[in-house]
Amino acid sequence: MKAASPRPDTRSFSLLSLTVAAALALHATHLPLWLSPPLALLLALRWLGFRRGRRFPALLRYALVLALPLGVIATYGTLFGRLPGAALAVGLLVLKLTETETRRDVHIAVAFAAFTLMSALLFGQSLPHTLLVCAALWPALATLLALQPSAGDTRAILKTAALRLAAALPVTLIAFVLIPRLATPLWGAPGLQQARTGISASMSPGAIGQLLVDDSPAFRVGFDGPIPPRSARYFRAVVLWHFDGRTWTPGRAARHLPLEPVQAPGPALRYTISMEATRQTLLPALDMPLQAPTGARFTAERTLLADKPVDHGLRYTLDSATTYRLQARLGARARALALQLPANDDPRTRALAARWRARYGDNAPAIITAALRRFHDDGYRYTLMPPPLGRQQVDDFLFDTRAGFCEHYASAFVFLMRAAGIPARVVAGYQGGYADRVADYLLVRQADAHAWAEVWLRGRGWVRVDPTAAVRPDRISLGAIAAAQGAGARWYQAAWLVGLRDRIDVLNRLWDQTVVGFNALRQRGLLTRFGVDPQRWQSVALALGGALAVVLALGLALALREPVAARDTLGRGFDRLERRLARRGHRRQPGEAPAQFMERIAGNLPAAHASTLRELSTEFVRLRYACTQPVSRLAVRDWTRRAREFEP
To answer: Pseudo-torsion of CA 127, 128, 130, 134, nearest 10°?
Structure first.
């Protein structure tokens, strides 16, 4: 009959609990709120109970095992998929600790924890997230080492686990480069945590304001030439024609408009956008793109729509004109759309526009100047936490609250222009961005989301007007973060902290390009340079075997060298002790063994000194001659320290 597996000690169980806690923490951001806190509490109670020698009640464990999948089904409607699968896996991992009573159970739990940690990469593959997953493997490996009979103290276990993780890096790198890669990830669907909605195809009070406090990256732009100045960094994403009194949308009628012609007398600017996943089809483009990239098409207003939602990171190259004339002649249908207003809404705003119309007549630039002067001179302020607006929201904003951010000013300005008989429309996108001069690219965050206006002027076509600049010029000249200071910014939007994140983004971009973006095509291009054909398994197997042989040979050489290095350190320590004794008249005779030498000296010393020297002699002989296992560096350092402190 097979003997039962022994019970693990408290240290092993504590390291296992730390491993499970790390897995729970990595998944906590996408677990339902009803699950994470109870699992954390259950984990803490189980750890305390094990330390006190208590078993977890079996009936309670069975009840929790039955309740977990029922709760997951009630939340997600299924047990399949990444979110329900992750919730089920993490819950079962914590419940596994409630029945862990033997060393065999610990081994199973560590293997399950490693699988759960790997699944965390399904929700994010950024550099910080990957490093956290790797760090969580440290207590997992330490748990396995703690189960060994000759494990040593906790400090030695943690050090050995760290060294073994580091030793695995070369093999990991070889496997990453040489093992054939799939054209798409195994999970295939969009990463729920990676995808950010960003700018949407509608605008209502608070819509863009939610993005202004989100400084996660929206996209990165690499220019063939110098990065344009901040005032020229307007990335158009969507044009909004229809207003129902509360929400701006593109409108169904705008879908049938012809493509607006553009005249670009100046040179085009070429650039490449690396866009984060958004699960939308909107593709931002700098000012006026001249052609649509592969897999995308133009709208009538020359904004870009992808053929399918952007579920994964996307790269596309564009040529844009920064000096242009858009739609020099306005058709009747487009004019009607650009003058549309909801009936009987915002009478005070209509009356103000009528007074301007009566004063300035058909002088559209004068009416535009009057509106911008009002925003600048009449006590309007820029804030990310504006007061709520009522049913007549434009009237409430212009005459009562006079506080808001870009969408309030763009919406009110376009309403005023239309009420004064000037065709106008709202444009939403991004403005600004952080120009990294070291890595030579532009980082545009969600906080750079912006809304402005376009008015149609005779002989000039559609002209951009940014009413926010009249209220808060530093929103355009210094960026969204600078404008947010004192306007409702959160603590994590402090200038120094945002600057630090901007610089760290260089590492994230390098990680995305070299690791996350290392697909089958790039692997083929890299290996072909070294004469390895990725399409022939014999070629890949030969390269993989050769690389692993080199790494194993180097590792073996280091393993064989370590005891010698430790013994040499021990020998140098003995030599220093021998010289110190010689200066006090105790010289070693020719051919005298170290143990005989120190025993002879000990006979001439006081009892306390003699006892210390005999201990040093016994330990030296054991470390130098009697050890059948590799010499512990910690033991050598301890002997060397004691020998250095010995003063006869």
So the answer is: 130
| Phi/psi of residue 238, nearest 5 degrees | -155, 145
Nearest to 228 by CA among 429, 438, 439, 442: 442
DSSP string, 190-240: PPTTT----S-S-B-TTTTTTTTT--SEEEEEEESSPPPPGGG-EEEEEEE
Of 148, 155, 112, the closest CA to residue 16 belongs to 112
Q: Cα(344)–Cα(392) distance, rounded to whole angstroms?
A: 10
Inter-residue contact 426 to 340 (CB < 8 Å):
no
462 and 454 Cβ atoms separated by less than 8 Å? yes
Q: Tokens for 343, please give them.
A: 């009936």
Which CA distances in Å does 194 have to 124, 134, 188, 264, 276? 6, 19, 13, 37, 8
The neighbouring-strand residues paired with 326 are 262, 462
Residue 318: what pLDDT?
95
CB 341 within 8 A of CB 414: no
Calpha distance 12→157 (Å, rounded)? 11
**Residues belonging to the active site:** 406, 450, 466
Question: Cα(314)–Cα(205) distance, rounded to whole angstroms?
Answer: 29
pLDDT in tens, 148-187: 876 667 888 888 889 888 888 888 888 787 777 655 444 4
Q: Find, among 575, 373, 383, 360, the residue nearest to 487 by Cα.
A: 383
Q: What is the pLDDT of residues 57-115, one digit of tens each?
A: 989 999 999 999 999 999 988 888 888 999 999 999 999 999 998 889 999 999 999 99
| Cβ atoms of 97 and 131 closer than 8 Å | no
Q: Rounded to whole angstroms, how far apart are CA atoms 189 and 184?
A: 10
Average pLDDT over residues 536-559: 78
DSSP-derived 3-state class of residue 465 = strand
Characterize 441-476 residue by residue with b for buried, 16 or more Cβ atoms within 10 angstroms of its Cβ, and e for exposed. Answer: bbbbbbbbbbbbbbbbbeeebbbebbbbbbbbeebb
- In angstroms, the CA 18 to CA 79 distance is 27
Q: Is the pTM of this model over 0.70?
A: no
- What amino acid is encoded at 278 in this protein? T
7 DSSP assignment: P
Q: Is 8 in a helix, a strand, or coil?
A: coil
Give the whole-angstrom CA distance, residue 381 versus residue 383: 6
Hey, which residues does 628 pair with through a beta bridge?
Answer: none
Collapsing DSSP states into helix, strand and coil, what is residue 320? strand
Q: Over range 449-458, report the average pLDDT.
A: 94
pLDDT-based confidence at 496, cuts 50/70/90? low
As a whole number of Å, the CA-based R_g of the chain is 35
Q: Rounded to an integer, what distance in angstroms lies between the CA atom of residue 521 and that of residue 543?
A: 18
Q: Whose CA is closest to 233, among 489, 503, 504, 479?
A: 479
- For residue 544, give every residue at least 6 positions away whose Cβ sits within 8 Å of its Cβ, in sequence order, or none: 174, 175, 178, 179
Q: Which of 6 and 470 is assigned the larger pLDDT?
A: 470
Question: Parallel, antiparallel, or unpaired for β 381-382 and 403-404?
Answer: parallel
